[in-house]
Design a protein that fits this description.
Blueprint: H1 2-35, E1 39-45, H2 63-83, E2 91-97, H3 105-113, E3 116-119, H4 125-148, H5 156-162, H6 164-168, E4 174-180, E5 193-196, E6 199-202, H7 207-212, H8 220-227, E7 229-231, E8 242-248, H9 257-271, E9 276-281, H10 285-297
Parallel strand pairs: 1-2, 1-4, 4-8, 6-7, 8-9
Antiparallel strand pairs: 2-3, 5-6
Helix pairs in contact: 2-4, 2-10, 3-4
Organism: Chryseobacterium flavum
Protein name: VWFA domain-containing protein
């Protein structure tokens, strides 16, 4: 009887230790995710005719030039983040996307050059290399697109539907996506509507649609809610993604146009479970740089 009791005590002790070790390992595993200070920054660029200085001129600063400076600020924030860490913890990356890809192979080559990553074996010279690429190549991309003049538009809805999880989200990272666009969403290959009782969702947003939906008065929010206006949800759960939209540029004539555009985007992000998002106007880069840097630092 004593021997049996002794054996039972040993089994109980071993089981208890195993449970404790399992819990400790599980806690460690989760703490790695929570404490991760590695970031994955993506930039999605809308190369529609919004960047055309002939179609959409701005005497203060052309919109493509603003984009270029936004990208420089994003790169600055990224590099600041890397330098704030110990070398042994480097495991960060940044890349640029278009959707669809431009037909100009030169632009696609520039894009490949702008995909950069840092790890513990990264040399100090690599920092200068990244600075040089992001100081020169974005301007080359915009100049090539403007010279080509074949603005294929940007299929942002399809990007969120089919590509954002594969391209912009990595486990155990802070995933940050910057979208450079005027806020209007339209592409001929992804233009559809979903109507049901009390709901009218679209995959696109144009100034024509805003007028057709009577979103031209101060009561636009009530009209949106009453009729269920908005973007068709493109994904189910993007809670591991932070999104910053830069460059909202409403057409003139409707004083509420910009607010309507932002309402569409913000409601869309909420539906897709994106918790951390910002939608900013096409302001001067000097005004947006502090916002960009803060978004990347997380402070």
């Amino acid at each position: 009887m004593k021997i049996t009791l002794y054996i039972l005590m040993i089994i109980s002790l071993v089981s208890c230790c195993k449970d404790k070790n399992d819990r400790t390992n599980e806690e460690k595993k989760h703490s790695i995710v929570v404490d991760s200070n590695n970031i994955n920054v993506s930039i999605l660029i809308d190369l529609s005719d919004r960047i055309d200085p002939g179609t959409n001129p701005n005497p203060t600063m052309e919109y493509y030039q603003r984009d270029v400076e936004y990208i420089k600020a994003i790169e600055k924030g990224f590099i600041n983040h890397i330098k704030s860490k110990k070398i042994i913890t480097y495991d960060d990356q940044m890349q640029v996307f278009f959707n669809p890809e431009p037909s100009d192979p030169k632009i696609n080559d520039f894009t490949k050059e702008l995909k950069v990553s840092f790890n513990k074996d990264t040399s100090r010279n690599y920092f200068d290399s990244v600075d040089k690429k992001y100081s020169e190549l974005p301007l080359n991309i915009y100049q090539s697109a403007i010279k080509d003049g074949k603005y294929v538009g940007s299929d942002i809805w399809e990007f969120f539907k089919n590509k954002v999880k594969d391209y912009c989200i990595k486990n155990d990272r802070r995933n940050i996506l910057f979208i450079l666009t005027d806020g209007y969403m339209y592409h001929q290959n992804t233009k559809f509507e979903e109507k049901s009782e009390g709901s009218y969702k679209t995959s696109y947003l144009t100034t024509k649609l805003i007028k057709a939906n009577n979103l031209t008065t101060s009561g636009f929010k009530d009209t949106i809610e009453k009729n269920g206006y908005g973007f068709v949800k493109a994904n189910e759960n993007l809670s591991n993604l932070e999104v910053i939209v830069l460059g909202i540029n409403p057409e003139k004539g409707n004083p509420f146009e910009e607010a309507v555009i932002k309402e569409y985007w913000e409601n869309w992000f909420k539906e897709m479970k994106i918790k951390n998002y910002q939608v900013k106007s096409a302001d001067l880069p000097s005004n947006l740089e502090p916002i960009i840097l803060k978004a990347i630092s997380g402070r």
